[in-house]
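Thread title: Can someone regenerate the structure for this chain?

I was given the following input by a collaborator and told the matching structure tokens would be attached. They weren't. Posting the sequence so someone can regenerate them.
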Amino acid sequence: MEIFPQVHLLNRVRGANVFLLNDVVAPTLIDSGLPFSGRRIIKSFGDVGLEATGLKQILLTHHHVDHSGGAAQVRDQTTAKVLCHVEDAEFLMRGRRRKRNMKFHQGPSPDGFLSEGDILPILGGLEVLHTPGHTPGSLCFYLPRFNAVFVGDLFLHTSDRLSRPSRGATFHEQQYEESLSRIADLNVDVCFPSHGSPILSNASDAIKRLRDVPSGRRSRSKFIGKMRDVPKVIRFGISLFKKNDH
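Best answer:
Regenerated them for you:
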């Protein structure tokens, strides 16, 4: 499904959003969904009238399996190269078990690395931004031509609001907050999160609102929101406990 000029969201794929950049010279995927998504991705090319064999590269926003899982299978059926940041390469190749009932999944060996400031000749120039925090090698991809950015898991867009991602084993809070602030300062019109729907206008307003709510305060607000759903008698009991907790 074309969600923006020359940008398709591949609906068949499970896991994180997979975007196809329909560049005439270098058709490109951003992320690749869960393991065994490869065949679904290949079929999705037909949905948008393209041949999968023309795919040039798969850009990974980070190493997590819901983003990198299908990359090896797609590469095996095309001539595409898998590219990521070097600081996520070790985690990518080490692999992990996503859930107890899933087999161990080892990610693809990268064919090359992306670095801060790289400009890829895609849709008039796609700029690589190193945005660590969620993982050491997390990347965002900026399209100046459209003032649009692909943000990976820098934030999620669910229930009509943006939220911070979960904190995995490699999460670094200070780096994350700096990366979030950096993307907020881009003042983009459009952003494409890896989870949830794209924001096609005034995206920077929503990103700045998220940035301006400190992480600790956000957690407290979330707790208070949940408390509203607790029966009054339980809330009353908790309040008594707090009064006596000196």
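The first strand starts at residue 2 and ends at 4.
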